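Reopening: Neurotransmitter-gated ion-channel ligand-binding domain-containing protein still failing for me.
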Amino acid sequence: MRHPQEDNCTKSIFVPFLEYQTLSVDTKNLRLITRLQAAMVWIDPELTWNTSDYPVDEVILPVKNIWTPEIHVTNGIVATMQHSSRDLLVYSNGTVKHTVIINAEVNCEVNLFNYPFAADECPVAIQAWSTDGCGTKLAFRHLKMVDGAHGDWQTDYVNFQKKRDDRNYIMVSLRIKPANPFITLLLPSMLIILADMVSFALPLTGGERNSFKVTLVLSFTMFLNILNDQLPGDSSCSPIIRTHFCICLIILVVSMLVSLVLTRVAQDGGLIFCCCSKRTGTKNTRRREEEQSEEVKADISVVQLDASGESTQLLRKVVKFLEALDAKDEENEKSQWIANLLDKIFFWIYFILGTVYFCTMTTVMVKYRCKVDHFDFWYDQNY
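Support: Ran it again with your exact input. Result attached.
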């Protein structure tokens, strides 16, 4: 069927009613899947007749035998237009009424920086064929939104807007429902960090704290691997929740390493370095040599005349052994005191910085707005 011809090369199509529905939002590929149902009215001069010759004011004709305008979604990746019925209504004055259904997958770079508190507007550009001022011109009146809630996304409102006379679009306001993403993504990371803070109540010695912290690090790593497919895709405004997860993992690893180092300090007062171990071994060797030399001197100076000499020597060894135990206990207590002091200092630093970080990150997620150009698909063609 050919395009109706009039005095000028422009054909006006009146759209008295347009129904919009958001089917889903693909946050991984940044796609908006929509359904449009448009009622169209236009005049085709070739379909007029005289009611005096044919006493019928309206007739029903097959769609396949009548020219019908095609509505395109300019920023649609995939768009299909279907006729709602195989027939349409034609009046004697050439007025034609028909309804079409458009299913479109729109390329919409939704601002996901604030995910899971994301909200943005996405245009759905609607136009008919036209070039060099000739073609089909659409005129819209009423727009109605149906079934605004699908999955994790909520459609707040829709309205008609235009960039210029031949560039009409539906501005769709989208908002994510934060309950499900918050429970499955953000809340677990907060609870794991909280558990890591509470683990400072466990003693440094014994290994329970270190084992618990290693378990937390491995659990959080598995958590990120499992949720990798559920995280939104990258765009010009990349979701800050990815950065949040990286920071949480770094915090857990640093906390684990600090706990390991403090455990070493609590045991022998030194860090995990070979040089420290060697120095400690050297000191112990020298101490044994001095004790042996003292024992030799004592054996030479003491004249073993009777059993009382042997008792004196045995008593000296016992005294030296007890003094060595006391010195070792004092050294262990000093190392334990230093480790506990450093542990408390690190805990309060960890607690304060962690609290400030989570408050700041939550504020940024809720308040900050990243700007996205949603109309880069429209440009002037100069040729």
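The first helix runs from residue 179 to 198. If you still see a failure, please send the error message rather than a screenshot.
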